[in-house]
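PT: before anyone asks, these are the final sequences, not the draft ones from last week. 557 residues across everything. Please model them as a single complex and drop the result in this thread when it's through.
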Amino acid sequence: MKIINKPSDNFIHDIINADLAADLAAGKRTEVVTRFPPEPNGYLHIGHAKAICLDFGTAEKYNGRCHLRFDDTNPEAEDEEYVQAIQKDIKWLGFDWGDHVYWASNYFDTMYEYAVRLIKKGKAYVCELTQEEFKNHRGVPTEPGTEPPGRDRSAEENLELFEKMKDGEFEDGSCVLRARIDMTSPNLHMRDPALYRIKRATHHNTGDKWCIYPMYDFAHCIEDSIEGVTHSMCTLEFEVHRPLYDWILQELDVFQPQQIEFSRLNLTYTVMSKRKLLELVNEKLVNGWDDPRMPTLCGMRRRGFTPEAIRKLCGIVGATKVESISEVELLESCVRDDLNETSPRAMAVIDPIKVIIENYPADLVETFDLPNHPKKEELGTRTVPFSRELWIDAMDYTDVPLNNKYKGFAPGREVRLRGAYLATCAAVEKDSDGNVISITCTYDPDSKGGSAPDGRKVKGTIHWVSAQHAVDAEIRNYDRLFTEENPLANKEADFKDLINPDALQITTAKLEPGLAQAKPGDRYQFERVGYFCADLDHTEAAPIFNRTLTLRAPRKV
RNA sequence: UGCCCGAUAGUGUAAUGGAAGCACAUGUGACUUUGACUCAUAGGGUCCAGGUUCGAACCCUGGUCGGGCAACCA
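LR: through. Structure below.
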């Protein structure tokens, strides 16, 4: 299949199209290889989803391949737990790396050889300055730095010192290997950056084999090069690292991938940095990485968001170099759009009040087969019991309707009990404080199914649950994590003070009985309320449902 | 006061020298056995100033504003 002349979705594909055309013209092999390179030091969030969609999506588009590569060059931060979680989340999102899973740590031998090569060329040296001392030599952005002592040592000496570093003859932090580039460069990253540091830490993959570990700048370009990555996409903050990326590979004279930077995904009412999310977890402001309020993929999964919706969002926001904050409404729209199509309907009463149907036989139970989806017959039907006493939602009763959009009961008012009968409110019983305790009504036995033989119309259709059959459930109502669109906008303030106290509100509800059999993760639309999914901890005996999102347009009565 | 990057409706994103579109959000209306969905409809935009050109969101010059960069993190 021809892989050039694919329509462009973004500036990155423009670049790839041009590269492929040039390769073709030069008679070279045309190929696209990308990679997603997480450090296994935390959970993936929706910002990573954007990168994943770009990396895997681009490879798919050009019939190339995308590698999953764990960038495990800092053993102190990394953990096997994250390795498993990252793989699970990528698969959940719908992408597959096939056999192409790699580890930076598998290239440690090659990296060491490459470092030796640089030393031999006089392009790297062992520097014994402390961090603080080197900082003084590096200087500040507005002034050139100065060359540190020992910079002009012979290659032989450096080779010997570097070998001693590797052999553990020096203390942690006593020296580093530096690239010998230009201490006066206007780009701080080119002022003799560190390539290797000494760190006695057990690596999850290489154990105690190494006591020196390569820095990101040295490791990443080499990883890309070894794997034959053609287009190495990363976020904007690495733009100033690109000259170094290119310098290292040129000095090494090895295959040179192209680094392309794009802007991170930001969403309103949340934060997207691993460090800040970790703070929320550590300070127990949320219940772990998979708290449904979190923008992590595992949190969103538990919340009930779908991978399809997240992928759709990533497609819509695209890839540019503009630093932007997308409105969370866009994500929510993608989620509702998908859930509306796919989730079966059910009835659940969140804020129950009792309805007694005076003229309905006390011992009668009828069942109704209601469609699971109003527009998709193929989703089938479920059986819902109906009896003399029902639960309806408190919002569906009022003494005096405030406007003509009101759908519920009011004294003398007839409404449709969804899928069952028309019923007219006869009386209401209140406690001494004026709170509604119960409503009595009469039903029209000829309106079975919800329509009257005389064809009369009713204003509203409300949902209900048979009281004697209702299943009690815990409902976790989730909302936005922060009260501010951009919790980080005020640099003086602590973003953690801006957490929305109402982002989780736990209530109990009356569910139609079939819902108890839901399996953890099953998604539903509770009609007229919102989208919900059975929580990870849900059981038939103790049902728990998470509110994914309310339906659009909050009720204004 | 160094270097790098960016700037198109409220938000995100197209238009690559030839009619400024789309989506979300918002307003109005229709439909509805979900105040959902669906459908129709409205408002609203090229940071500023010059220049090149028959023609500029796009090219050039100068500003303005926003972001990034001074870990032995990635």
